[in-house]
Amino acid sequence: MGEWYEDSFGEDYIIVYRHRSLANAEREIRSMTGWMSLPEGAEVLDVGCGTGRHAEALRALGYKVTGLDLSPVLLNEAKKKDSKGLIKWVQGI
Questions:
Q1: What is the pLDDT of residues 8-19, one digit of tens each?
Q2: Which residues of 39-69 are buried (b: 16+ CB within 10 A; e: fewer)?
Q3: Contacts 24+ apart (CB under 8 A), 55-61
Q4: Taking the alpha carbons of 48, 72, 74, 26 in that order, is the dihedral positive or negative?
Q5: Helix, strand or coil for residue 84?
Q6: Is 26 exposed, middle or buried (0-12, 13-18, 19+ CB in 10 A)?
Q7: Helix (H, G, I), strand (E, B), or coil: what is residue 47?
């Protein structure tokens, strides 16, 4: 058994948080990028990207995105959604 954070973000996380939608992430990202005045095409690091909802929303707005997460399970889910490989996915702390 690993550290709590290593054990907490696996298959169960995907089930518990399945109600979180891309549409919700898109609304959140539009607000955040507006506050930050990020220029189109800026490079963005999504730390704790999980299954990639926010990374996908950032990419759709024209940003160059790298998604970073500890969980290989969640990163695999993110990669499945990114079938064209437009986002760089990195596992790490």
A1: 666 565 545 566
A2: eeeeebebeebbbbbbbbbbbebebebbbbb
A3: 55/82, 55/87, 56/22, 56/25, 56/81, 56/82, 56/87, 57/22, 57/25, 57/26, 57/28, 57/29, 57/30, 58/29, 58/33, 59/86, 59/87, 60/26, 61/29, 61/30, 61/33
A4: positive
A5: coil
A6: middle
A7: strand
Digit-coded pLDDT (tens) for 45-81: 999 999 999 999 999 999 999 999 999 999 999 999 9
Amino acid letter, 93: I
Longest dimension (CA), the chain: 43
pTM of the model: 0.79
